[in-house]
Every structure is written in C-alpha cells, then in structure tokens.
Amino acid sequence: MIAEIGQYALILALVLALVQTVLPAWGARTGDATLMSVATPVAYILFLFVGSAFAALVALYLTSDFSVVNVVDNSHSRMPTIYKITSTWGNHEGSMLLWVLVLALFGALVALFGGNLPERLKANVLAVQGSIAVAFLLFILFTSNPFLRIVPPPAEGADLNPVLQDPGLAIHPPLLYLGYVGLSISFAFAMAALMEGRIDAAWARWVRPWTLAAWVFLTLGIAMGSYWAYYELGWGGWWFWDPVENASLMPWLSATALLHSAVVMEKRDALKVWTVLLAILSFSLSLIGTFLVRSGVLTSVHAFATDPARGVFILVILSVFVGGGLALFALRAGELKQGGLFAPVSREGALVLNNLFLTAATAAVFVGTLYPLALEAVTGDKITVGPPFFNLTFGGLMLPLVFAMPFGPLLAWKRGDLPGVAQRLMVAAGIAVVAAVVTAAAEDRGPVLAPVVLGIAVFVMLGALTDLAERAGVGRVSARVNLRRIVGLPRSAFGTALAHFGIGVCLIGIVCESSWSLEKIAAMRVGETITIGAHDLTLTRMENRTGPNFHARVAVFGIREGGVSQGEVVSGKRLFTARQMATTESGIRTFGFSQLYVAIGDETPDGQVSVRMTWKPLVTLIWLGTVVMAMGGLLSLADRRLRVGAPKPARRRVSPVPAE
Amino acid sequence: MTRKGRRLVLIAVALGVLGLAAGLVLTALNDTIVFFRTPTEVAERQVAVGQRLRLGGLVETGSLAKQGTSVRFVVTDGNGHVTVAYTGILPDLFREGQGVVAEGMLKPDGVFAADTVLAKHDERYMPREVADTLKKTGHWMEDAQNAKSPPAAPAAGALTQ
Amino acid sequence: MLSASLFAAFAFMTALAVMAVLWPLSRQKVARASGEADLAVYRDQIAELSRDAAAGRLPPEQAAAARVEVARRMLAAEGAASDVSLGSGRRRRIAAAVALVFIPLLGAGLYLRLGSPALPDMPLASRLAAPPDGTDVAILVRRVEDHLAANPGDGRGYELLAPVYLKLGRTDDAVRAYGQVIALLGATAERQAALGEALVVRNEGVVGTDAARAFQSALDLDPTMAKARYFLGLAAEQDGRRQDAATLWGQMVKEAPPNAPWLPMVRAALARITPPGVSSPAPGPSAQDMADAAALTQQQRGAMIQGMVDRLQDRLNADPKDLDGWLRLARAWHVLGDDGKARAALQSARTTFAGDAEAAVRIDAAANEIGGR
C-alpha cells in the first residue's frame, strides 16, 4: 500500500503542478486576485504530496520491500539503516525525486514567506515554479518511475554502489540540490518580472535572499562533494575537473555573479537587464548540470544513468526552459528602463568587474566541459580536456579577480577614490608581500608562482579585515567609537568580509596542497617503516575485518614523529559481496590543518602490499575556507534588512533564516 | 566624465576581460588537450613518441605483471596490443579482461608509460571512448548480468505458475 | 483489485488536492494596492540610510544623494495604479469546475496507467516471518541460504538448494552449491553429473572443459550414467568430432532400457548428426534446447518434448514429403505413450510415400518396432 500511495501522491503532485502553472498565471494576466490566491495553498499541498511520495520511498527502502524495482536495484537488506535511507537518493530515480522534493519545498517557502511580494509577482513566480515541477514530474513518472513493481519479488537486492555507501551520500546530494534547485526561484522571479515587463530595485531585494540561500547550499554542497571524493575515491585528489564537478561549479560561479549584480540593482537601480539575464543563466546552468549528470552523455566517474530516452527528455526540458527564458528575455529586455549612473571607478564598477571575470570564468569552464562533446560530434575525434586546461584558463581568470577583491568593498558607491583605497590597503599588501617572500625563501620546491598566489591569498584575508576596520573608523576615531560602530554594523557587512576572508583561506589550502605535498609509493611488508616529511610510518599489521555487507582487509600503520608515537592510521580495501566490488578506504590523520593520507593497493601472495602515502600541508583549509564562505552567506541572510519589506511589518513574526 | 565616456570605459574593460578569457581558452585548447587513441592506432604508428595521449581498451587477460609497485599490462582492442608500464596503485576496479584508460606517453621502445590509470567506474559503466571503440571492432559484450538473464527468465516464470 | 483501505487513502488524497483549489476560490480576497509592497522596501532603505548616516558609517553628502534616489523610486511606485480586481465569478466557476473534474479524472487515469493497485506491500521482514507455503520461492531460497550461512557444513542444504538455483537462473550460485555438495558429502556420479549440467547451463549450452571433466568423473564412478554420456557426446559434437558423438550416442541407444525417458532425446541428437539420407537433414533440438531441457524438472521436460513433437507434427502437416520426419514423429509418440498417434503418423507416411519401395520397408520396420514392444 505504501508503494501505491507513493505512486498516487506523485501523480496528484503532477496534476496540482499543472493547476499551479495555469490558474495563477491566468489570474495574473486578467488581474484576478482570487485566481492568483490559488497559488499559495496549491503550493503547500504540492509539497505535501511530493513529500509523501518521498517518505513512501524511504519507507520502502527501510523495510526492504523488494517488490519495488528501484529498491531491488539499489538496496541490500543487510545495509546499515543510514545507508538504507541514503540509498533512496543514491540512484537515478530517487535522486530525481529528491530534486522535485526540493523544488516543491522552495515553492512552498515562497508561498509561505511571499506575503511581502506584490500579488501578481508572487502568482507568476509560483506559476513558473509549477511549470518546472510539471516538466520534472512528467520526467519521473514516465522515464524514471521509482515506484514500479516486480512480481515475483526477489529475496535480496543488488546492493547500493559501494562507492556511495558512505555518510557523504547523506549530506552531499541534498545540499547540492538545495543549491541547484534554489536557483529556480531566481529564475522564476526573473521570468515573472519579464512577464510583467516591470522590474525595479525592490525586485532585487526580494530575489536576493533566495539567491543567497541557494548560493550557501551550493557552496556547502560542492565543498562536501569535494571532501567526499577526497577521502572516498582513494586518490587523494579533491578536485578533478570532472564534467560533473564542472556542472556544479558553473551555476556556482554564475550565482556568485548574480549575488553581486543584485546588490548593484538593489542599491542603485542599475544593471537590471544584466541581473535578469544572470538569473536566467544560473538556473539554465543548473539544468545543464542535471542534463550532463542524468543523461550520461559525458565520460565521467559520476555518470550512473545511461538511458538515451532520459537524455532526450531532459534535453527537451532544457531547451524549453532555457530557450523560453532567453526568448522572453530577448522580447522584453528592451522595455526595461535603465537606472542609476556610476563612474568606472566605484563600488558599482568593481562589482561589474567581478561579474565580468566570473562570467568569463563560467564560459571557460563551459567551453572546457562541452568542447570534447562538440568536437566528437563534428570530427569524430575523441579528446580529453583535463586539469591543465582548467588550471590555465580558470586560474588565469580567477587570480586577477581575487587580487581585485579587497578593493571592491572599500570603494564608495557612484564614484570611488582608487588611490585612497590603495593607500588603506597598504598594510595588508605589505604583510602579504612579506608572507610571499618568506615562503619563497623557505620552500625551494614547487612552482615559482606558488608563493605569489599565497601572498595574494594573505592579501585577500587581510583586505577583508581592513574593510571591517575601515567601516569602524579604526585610526580615525576613538577605540570606544570603533567598538560601537563595529557592533552597529549590519550583519551583511560581516557576511561580505567573512565570505571574502574564506576565499583567502581556501586559496591558501589550494596553493599549499598542490605545490608542497609529499608523496611516496612503496611495496611494504609488516614491520617495515617509511619516512615521509617529519613522520615515520610503520606497517604494524594486516588484518581482516567484517562489515554488515562487506569484508575488509586493512593495514594498520603506527605513526611516529621525532621518535614519539602519534597513534595509528588505518587504511583498507573493502570487498562488497553482493556486487563483488572493491573500494579503497583511505586512512587519514589530521595534524593541525595538514593531513597524512594513506591508501593501500593489492596485496601480493608473499605478503607485500603497495602503499601510497601523502603528506598534504594545510589541505583542510580548502574546505574550511568554503565553510567560512558559506558562514558569511548565512550571516548576510540573517541581516534584518533582508527580512523587512513586508507591507505590514508589525504583524509579522520573526521568521526562520533561509526562508525569506 | 561624460555618460558616453563612462560607457566607453566599461565596454573597453569588458572587451579586455573577454579578450583575456578567449586568449587563455584558445592557448589552453592548443596546448593541453589530450587525444584518445586505441591500441590499433598506436600500433599503426599514428602516434608520435613523447606526445601525451589517452590509451583505452581492454586489459589483456594474463598480461598483468607486478614487481613491487611497478606494473605492466597489455591493453588491446582485439587488433592492436600495447604494453603499458605504470608505477603506483591500480584503481579498485582494475581487472584483467575489463575496460581501462591509461594516460601518459609512448616511449621510443613502444612501451606506453602511464602516469594515470582509470578503470571503469562500476559494473555497468565503461569509459565511453572504450565502449565505442570496442563496439566498432566487434568486441562488445553486453554486461555480464544482462547476458545471463534471458535463460533465467523462462525458468523463473515456469516455476511460479 | 483495489483494497478498501487503499481506495480510502486515494479518495482522501484526491479530496485534499481538490480542496487546495476550491478553498481559495471560495474566500473573499482583499485586494492590496499594488505599489504597497515596493513602498515597504523603499521606506526601509530610507531608514537604513538614516541609521548609517547617524552612526557615521556614511558621509552626509552620499547619504543625501542616495535618499534622493530612493525618494524618486518611491514616487514612481506610488504612481503605479492598482489594476488587481477581486475577479469575476465566471472565471471562478471555470476554475472550480476544472478542479472538480480535471484533478480526479487525470489522477485516476494516470494511476490506472502507472500503478499496480492489486499488489500489496511486501516488506522483507514480513515475508520472512510468513509461514512457508511454497509460493514465495525467493524467500524459501533465502531461508535455506540463511541456514547455510549459520551451518556452512550442511551439505544436504546445498543439495536442496542447487537445483533450485538452476531453475531460478542463478547459475553461478548453482555451480558453487554443487561444488559444496561434492566437497561436503563426497562425489557420486549423480552429483558430478549435476555439477556438469549446471556448468553447461552457465556456459549457455556449451560443454566446456570444466563441465566435461565433471561428466568424466561421473562416468568414472558409474559408467552407465546416462546424463554424463549424453553430455560428453554433446561435447564431442560441439568440438566437431561428430563421429565420436555418434559412437557414444549410438552405444547409449543400443544399451538403453526400453522405457528410458531420455531415449527420444538421444535419438533426436543422433538423427541430427547422422549424415543426411534421402531427404534433407531433420533439424533437431539445438544444443541450447538440450541444455535447457537438462535443467528442467521431469515434468517440465515432458512438456518441452511434447512441444517439440507438436512442432514436428505441424511442420509435417504443412510439408509431408519428409520420411525421416514421419518416422521420428511416430517414435516420439510411441515414447510419449500414445501408440494411436504413432500409428497415425506411420499411416500418413505410407499415404505420402505410396509406391516408394524403400520407404515402405523403413515404415514397416518402424511399425514393427512400435508394435513389437
């Protein structure tokens, strides 16, 4: 009964999504307030139905109901409970259901917290959301139905792909989808504004918190995915420029640009057309990401769906929404009135520069990701565009952007004073140069550019602090006034500084890991010792372990530093019985911000095991930095200025953070 | 500055950034892309010694030889055979008779020195280039589970009737 | 059929969906001035400017300029006339009708296409807990597997399980199980032959070296083991040693007890490889058919043979000029225990080949064979 209720709930969700698309849009066209008001309750119930369908699927996984094909294909009755739950979305059908669940969640949140929006805007936004839901529900029901049954049911499932049997699966896809799909709200706002042909500074304020929330989740999702690949795949790499990773990076870059251009629009009523275009592009890139991942068109370590019917279906969805969005944009953009003026050297100018670099970087990643496909289609040549391409193009575009970053927040609106700003950044720049020189003197290995990049990273971090100090008037007024001003600063100011600071932190991690890692590969026997950097690793023993649905062979290493024992690190290989598939469990020990990474390979019959050990200096800063960035985003989101704008503020309660 | 002047500056900066981006992309595309080649193409000497490339095919059964952390194996597409030398840990899914992609360069003695070895990602996934090539050369085998299920179906059906 | 509780759940869900549309339609909506939302934002921007200016975070001249800009936006927003109305009754009625008709109809229609209302939930725990009644074969297998996981030395359990695996098409498991049986309970001719058979099925009908070895061990234990001899003959045929196959099978037929159930199968195989006579060679069952047949139960095997006989009958009815075919059919009916049909087949042959002396001799010989037993 659970399976059938799930199926029916999904069908009713499709029907309601159709209603949510048609009636409010009709109401908005005819100015009918009653029809427009249908959108709100329908969005709630739509979420309820998709939520029920999702809960039903989770229940089927929990009870190992092998009369459901999806459960048979991706589950095993002896899996730990957490993996039974996460395997719900660890497969194509389930992950698409999660996608729609997040979409419906955002629709319901707009309905709930959209009381401060003009009725027509809200109705149109929800109608656009509804149409996206229609497309994806059709896709699920007719090409990827998770509730299909099988008779007679087998007694055991085929197990979840062992690579996915990891707590990372519990967090990474939901976060990433909250980001991807959150951008659909910005898209819906852009479409609604274009339909009305009216867009102004208030629009930017309404759309910004949604973009910010999506950006925060996308940031965390990407960071989580990177850390997951780092420890689970056993290669020790944290970013592979894999098309699927690029698929999440492109919307992130575009959303970052959107966040910044929306600031200009909100404050100065300028860059309207550009902002609307970015909103459309960001979600389009999300959809392209979904297409790349779900259709399996690209060679990729992530591609686990390779059904051409699905690919074509998503391609149709993609062209309808991207094409429709851009067509409406082309039709209506001319009608949008241009707003405030600004000098090239100004806060606005800096934000425009930010946007230029970010979009150019997005385009570079886009070319690198799709060029192999295009070339193969045209000439039949198969090529790989690998890390060297992206390091050169993406790095080449991001470095000037990052270098310019500390200047932006210090420039005044309308007309800025560049020499003045440069003067205020002298301290930060001085310390950064010292850091670079000291590093270059201390490290004789690694690329020449590495200390320079390290210096830029330090400059960015100190630049963010300089921004806060300037706002507090440090050096100009008394310490007591400084403190009062700091306390009185809007949270979004801290948010900006924190996010920029996080980029510097992340950059330090990237430079140190990629320039000064130490690696050793050796065949070891029990009792042998290998020295890497300051650490001695001794293979103390090999042993067998048994998990619920796998057997493991693990190597235990004792770590000593300067003769003092530092505990153990355990690395192993797991053989999952149902799929007869092996995974590597890397052993990681953290020392400060650095990590020792150990992975083992095959064991020879005479007791030798191949071991790869890597010392990764400051590697954790990569992810800590992104977390700091996300914290900055959350802080901005908590700013009271983003919460106001309700017609009757007195009646409204203070609401949970990500919602408004 | 006049309104027109401001706009000109903006456009100039935009063109500058776009030019930088286009320049970087074109340079990188010239220098860093890696072609995919089959063992047949390598055997026919279509590949220059020292040029970086990806070699894909099946690991020939019985060809894997290990010595400490150095391994050698033969990649084949049914026609050509190329010996690959690699130092390091092979991926979990590396198996004889299975698809593999090795990245590296050909040495003068005809041995392919690989610095990266990728195996197919799971039971159902094979690097796209490898699958295409094998289909072309007629060595494509549907995945083992599928091949086995047809004879199973009638028996299972008969049993439950 | 739809169970009552499922129907109730569906009805409730449909009602909820319809109400989500009808409820807002029935409410009196108070239209708000359309500029109101924008004004709230701009008022807040003004307030913020004042706060920043007062705290000294914003120079006074910048604050003043910004305030002018915001004020201009406020004026524009106030000027925008509200064109949102309460809406017409006609539109509301259309919307309500759509909700009442469209939601249940489309929902039910799609469900009928996609759903399986007759299937109950089958969580694993309750399937394992249910009394074994033989309907859920997969669970029966699993029970034995669980038992074997706890008692890995129980060879009898594997012996029970192995043929079931084979029927379920889990050939790898079947081979492994037969291996366990032999390891735990010792080799017998039957077990070796069964292992060989499983190997053949796994190999899609081809008798590989591993299977041939198993059959040979079976013959070492019991030289009369029919199954092993048959498959070794098949191996010879597949290797292209037709003469060896013919010798092996010929010997089998010669030594066969009269009512051996496998006799027609071996005869058919023999006929397949014997050099063609007057008419075209009779297409016999393929190696695949035989391997499949070997994997079947006695009863299923009977059904399969019956099917082959029926096909032969049909073919001969359509094209009667095939003496070997008629003779084969007659023998087959005889073996299946239907001598009436066997005689009818011979009669048809006589009619078709009337005047052919050589044919008449062979038909008479066949008639004797049938009648003489």
Descriptive overview:
The complex is a heterotrimer of chains A (660), B (161) and C (373). With 660 residues, chain A is α+β, with helices and mostly antiparallel strands. Chain A folds into four domains: 1-165, Four Helix Bundle (Hemerythrin (Met), subunit A) (Up-down Bundle); 169-404, no CATH class; 412-513, no CATH class; 518-616. Chain A is built from 22 helices and ten strands. In chain A, the strands form two sheets. Chain A has a five-stranded antiparallel β-sheet with strand order 3-4-5-6-7, with no helix packed on it. A four-stranded antiparallel β-sheet of chain A has the order 2-10-9-8. In chain A, a hairpin with a 2-residue loop joins strand 8 and strand 9. Helices cover 39% and strands 28% of the residues of chain B. In chain B, strands 2-4-5-7-6 form a five-stranded mixed barrel. With 161 residues, chain B is α+β, with helices and mostly antiparallel strands. Chain B has helices at residues 3-32, 39-43, 128-137, 144-160, and strands spanning 34-37, 52-59, 65-67, 70-76, 81-87, 99-106, 112-119. Chain C has a domain at 4-26 and 36-77 and 91-114. By secondary structure, chain C is mainly alpha-helical. The interface between A and C is large, with 84 and 74 residues. Strand 1 of chain A pairs antiparallel with strand 1 (34-37) of chain B.
Write the layout of secondary structure elements.
The complex is a heterotrimer of chains A (660), B (161) and C (373).
Chain A: H1 2-30, H2 33-37, H3 39-62, H4 69-74, H5 81-86, H6 92-113, H7 119-143, H8 168-196, H9 201-232, H10 243-268, H11 272-295, H12 308-332, H13 347-379, E1 383-384, H14 387-404, H15 407-410, H16 418-424, H17 426-442, H18 449-472, H19 479-488, H20 491-516, E2 518-524, E3 529-532, E4 535-546, E5 550-561, E6 564-576, E7 581-585, E8 587-591, E9 594-603, E10 609-616, H21 620-637, H22 640-643
Antiparallel strand pairs in A: 2-10, 3-4, 4-5, 5-6, 6-7, 8-9, 9-10
Helix pairs in contact in A: 1-3, 1-7, 3-6, 6-7, 6-8, 7-8, 7-12, 8-9, 8-11, 8-12, 9-10, 9-21, 10-11, 10-13, 11-12, 13-14, 17-18, 18-19, 18-20, 20-21
Chain B: H1 3-32, E1 34-37, H2 39-43, E2 52-59, E3 65-67, E4 70-76, E5 81-87, E6 99-106, E7 112-119, H3 128-137, H4 144-160
Parallel strand pairs in B: 1-2, 5-7
Antiparallel strand pairs in B: 2-4, 2-6, 3-4, 4-5, 6-7
Chain C: H1 4-26, H2 36-55, H3 60-79, H4 89-114, H5 124-129, H6 137-150, H7 155-168, H8 171-185, H9 189-202, H10 209-221, H11 226-238, H12 242-255, H13 263-273, H14 287-295, H15 298-318, H16 323-335, H17 339-352, H18 357-371
